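> tool_call: predict_assembly(chains=four)
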Amino acid sequence: MNISRAAELSGVSAKMIRHYESAGLIPAAGRTAAGYRVYAMDDVHRLAFIRRARAVGFGTADIRQLLSLWQNRQRPARDVKRLAVEHLQQLQARIADLEAIADTLSHLIGHCQGDERPDCPILDSLAADSPAPAATSTKRSKKAK
Amino acid sequence: MNISRAAELSGVSAKMIRHYESAGLIPAAGRTAAGYRVYAMDDVHRLAFIRRARAVGFGTADIRQLLSLWQNRQRPARDVKRLAVEHLQQLQARIADLEAIADTLSHLIGHCQGDERPDCPILDSLAADSPAPAATSTKRSKKAK
DNA sequence: GCTAAACCTTCCCATGATGGGAAGGTCAAG
DNA sequence: CTTGACCTTCCCATCATGGGAAGGTTTAGC
């Protein structure tokens, strides 16, 4: 089958199929005499695997490992789990960061009347809150006017 | 003062100061005869404002608007609040997405023993879960072998 | 057999914020 | 005058995805 059919069956766009090939996530596809890529169901399965891994947030490097673990029937489930747990922790860290930001913003919004008047605690806070993070001064910096 | 001093005082790296200039968030700095950028405290304040806005997740476009609202003493606080609320909603949407992913992953991890044996529900799930999203078939696709 | 549509190919560009690093000019202290 | 700490611009990379151009191929319809 050609690339658009493989895209249709796997749920991965033709554009991304080529991308995954160049990134080495899938083996280089066979070609027709005219240079068209040719796919079999095996490839479609692999692509769908990648799509699902992406859907739970795994990045290229993680997926590369997952694919190799998937291929290797001998691998211990522990390896897979470790990868997944690490990824989950990163996800949770990102969520915590975003929540902290959302809380801050939410707090600011709560203090803003949001009416016709120009008084706005949100802008005030952005304009003059924390001084400046750890000033890593450089050599000549004292002299700088 | 020169760019590295402005960076030190504002907490924005010299690299990013140049970037913000080219992005139009700050006016083009004045130059010495030799072409060095020259800054005053006004610029430092503006940069610090940008830094704090970035810290609560605002993107370039939002910051551009915030800066113009900040400059304009006549603006109604409502405009600022609206921008902030929209941004907060986007943040919350992203958080919800990540949480859904984290939940899915967490669920999979919970079902994986993670021992020496090769059985792994995580890989199984990636290998054969949802079929493929809405196949948008193209014209000739039926014929594709 | 010719034409036009629907494919395919590769290559470049853009996103968004940030940093790394190279090549080359400038300034101040010794 | 040398040296080191600056400054400048320009290119590249991240990460995954898509847009689009230029140009070749295949197939349906006549």
